[in-house]
């Protein structure tokens, strides 16, 4: 009994920490609709700044409070700068593009933090009062954990007061309901958004600063916290502070008891919770269906098949790709092989994201399933490459059918997060089911059959399967199926009224996307010779998103342009130093320069030029 | 035989009974208007007939077949065409592609993955657009159409399935008066020529009394009057509802 | 302090960014080592590691190089992803035309590179990856591994662990192959040595995301006599702080892998728990000639104390140099045979490449933790030679199918 009480307190302290990180994220999303991927970076900066301040201040409680608040304020200022310099310029762009920009920020901050604070974990020497414990039921419980248990609800209370008892809060809430209405009231939206972003960033900084005494400021904090923060926000219902608090409590307490009962559950627990909650409540615990952001539907320009000029350009590019092995060296060839894989990977995501209107944060799952299917064919069945390449899309498609039944009922960020949850569960299975998958050591020796062993042949095979696969997908998008799918995205109401089954169409798009990604994963497995859980980890899903967004969601050429650009850029930058800051800045520059993606911008320029010529 | 028959429809939202026992029937070729003040239950009624809502009680029959609570997409295949109060079209397609998509859906050809969609049923689509006076705009993106044109596009899409019944929720809302009369005259012509039954709600009394063959008046979830436009216009209960009890 | 870090980074960047600098010094064509490691993903270990190999390259070349040729290292970052390492390995072999591949921190990166080496029949010298699979289950003639494996790390501490005389044990280890294989070996070796031993609870925190409060509470609930720990880095700091405050470590023996390495000990500071049995490197108190010489040269070049990573980076180069010298050629087949038995100097003293499984015998230090002047240190330490922490040749033959 006492033990249960103590474990409950431990869970509450964990919940408070989770809530502090998630609160800022949910506040920012509620008002600005920005899915702020860099929230973890702000959290990390909060911890590092707190270390810099606190290691110079006297070690008394009042200075501790001062230092923590100072770190929060400093992070808020950084957040405000980020909003003014970057995000403000792209509020009119498609929602997910902001995610891409904030992903660029993550990369930049990683190198900046390494440069400023160095590679060693920085821990704060704890004064006696921070190390203390109180005796509860004969067992020791950290005093600081008690502080945290109080801080979480206190911050919640403060935020609720701020939002419900001040004019600023009223305006912010009004903006959450209807941005244009607030603008009509004569309030400068820009100031409102900047202040909200600063508040959210400050909360992230506060969370990071308060985490410092429990461990250290280190360079892995950003990514280790961001996934869980998103989970809390989504489980709670995006934009709902109360929901985030409830979700943090749920996850914190489940975690405390869960790992005592099932120790190996640590990798997936939060994602299992998220999947379970979203399946039952598609908008989280306290979330409301998202009002469609205005201007979103109008933003969709009609998609047209390629004109003659573009078709010629495409053919020339394809011809160049086919002839590449005669001029390219082996390294360039392996980069091009990866680019071909990336084309199908991106094109398959594009099927569900563009015409299907379903963004996925977990697309790497299907890539991984395909890769493991190939590995299983090679190692488990001892079969040739053809079997693996055939098995992969079916395995990925079958699993996508199973998962899709839950996923396609949802929409927006919730849908994306449910795909993330399933991808993480798949990743954890690959990671932990060592007997079958080899765990994180992966499956080795998945090399192609002899006839395809040399680099040019493997490249041509990849080109045939991946570019061919992408062309087949493209064909389907211009076929009646693609029209029907786009119809369900543009207006589900109208689509149903003319007799279309939106659910099944979306499910079919999901399965098609899964199968396409699965095939790309299998090709990748044979090209690399090995399969690892990293193939289905979050960063790889992010790669897919970045690729599609970089190319442009609303053009059919987008994924191809994005895949080739991103693969070549990344592999080239990775050869040099400080590639993260370079890649991050480049992504940010591309987002600012081409808010509709590279292909989107190119087609706009083309239209304008033709307009003038005509 | 009546095209559509509804018997004793009831729908309750919490404590509020939005529709409290409505029965109606629409005959082939008939223009039937459903009117009533705001909150009378018109939309709820409409959504129960159109499959968006399932009635708590009562039944809906289409050509004798029980279709109570049937999903809109199944109704569509049984010959129910629908337009909405707030227009809904496919913004990322051209006007012609919108109608082609409707034709593909109605002909159960949506699950084809290979042939090019924009080469399908071109003549049919253009014919439908010509009928609603949209032929000249066939290649424009649907997302940039004027409101009245969108209404006509919706009508063309609703007609794509050769409907036996058209359900039109506020078909002329947001249109200029001259346009309204023209659109409804068009609908009326279609109803006459093809024997299509039309059930519509409308705020504009000129449209109602000018175009409807019969009018149903709904108030607080109940039918309080029905009959020819002249009879309904003269009904004191209707006048009371619309002009207040003082009348 | 920040200043020294900045110099550290600048030093690293400058030399790697300009490999031409090293190339220019050589008259005949240099021997090229293609090196890949997780520089951005695991900087706490790999940046000192880079400084270590930079020092070694400088020293080897100053002494006249190998086979009369200078050494040149071309280094890349794998971003912690095996698939990137595979591509870069290809680039190094095909474009840069390196003679030897080296590097790796993460086990899966090491295995991926090893598989490339096997496929392409080129030599790969794994420096840090600890997984046993590298030389046993997945071992092959083209892959050599320098550091003591998970098995060896555990085997080196078992004597001291048995002496604790503890009956009820709990384990806490990160939830991935490294952590799992540590616990597997520890249980196996302890059960062989101490019949009747019980393992009453285990915790598997996610790497980098430990919920330290809940983990410590769950371990305490099992009322163990002793604890086996495999966590390291930020997880270890969080775990130790919660454990200290909640009194988990009081009157309990703790056996903890890698904790004595300076990169992991330093962040623990004055909260370093005393008396833990750890592997690591007592950099403050080693005084023998080879350690002292290495530390002095390193401090002279970089202005700070070396870390364990520095030792591994340094020894990687000297081990490769010795292997090539013994082979008398950079022909892959010659090296695959010639490395066997080659002796090489390391900061810890002389080691060699085992002939039976291509494992390096570089050892590590086993000792106990203590706090001196507000810093964590290792005391009562001894050097555990890698050669003495191996299973019998008979067992190795069973484990290594090639």
Sum up the structure in keywords.
heterotrimer, A: 614 residues, mainly alpha, ABC transporter involved in vitamin B12 uptake, BtuC, two-stranded antiparallel sheet, 26 helices, globular, B: 247 residues, alpha/beta, Rossmann fold, six-stranded mixed sheet, four-stranded antiparallel sheet, 9 helices
What does this structure look like?
- Chain A has 614 residues and is an all-alpha fold.
- Chain A is 73% helix and 3% strand.
- Chain A has 26 helices and 6 strands.
- Chain A has helices at 2-32, 39-54, 61-85, 95-117, 128-131, 143-165, 167-177, 179-184, 189-211, 221-236, 241-261, 269-280, 308-323, 330-353, 364-380, 385-407, 412-432, 434-437, 455-478, 480-490, 492-497, 502-528, 538-551, 558-573, 579-593, 597-613; strands at residues 122-123, 133-136, 139-142, 216-217, 443-444, 530-531.
- Chain A has a two-stranded antiparallel sheet with strand order 1-4. In chain A, strands 2-3 form a two-stranded antiparallel sheet.
- The relative contact order of chain A is 0.12.
- The model of chain A is unreliable at 292-299 (pLDDT under 50).
- Chain B has a single domain (4-243), classed as Rossmann fold, CATH 3.40.50.300.
- Chain B is built from 9 helices and 10 strands.
- In chain B, the strands form 2 sheets. In chain B, strands 6-7-8-3-9-10 form a 6-stranded mixed β-sheet, with helices on both faces.
- The longest helix of chain B is centred in the last third of the chain and has 18 residues, at 177-194.
- Chain C is of the alpha/beta class and 402 residues long.
- Chain C has 2 domains: 2-149 and 287-363, Rossmann fold (3-Layer(aba) Sandwich); 151-284 and 365-399, 3-Layer(aba) Sandwich (Rossmann fold), CATH 3.40.50.2300.
- Chain C is 44% helix and 19% strand.
- Chain C contains 14 helices and 14 strands.
- Chain C has helices spanning 2-17, 19-24, 43-62, 82-94, 107-120, 150-163, 177-193, 212-221, 234-246, 262-265, 289-302, 308-327, 332-338, 393-399; strands at 31-37, 71-77, 100-103, 124-126, 143-145, 168-172, 198-203, 226-229, 253-260, 277-280, 343-346, 349-352, 364-372, 375-384.
- In chain C, helix 7 links the parallel strand 6 (168-172) and strand 7.
- The relative contact order of chain C is 0.13.
- Mean pLDDT of chain C is 91; it is low at 1-26.
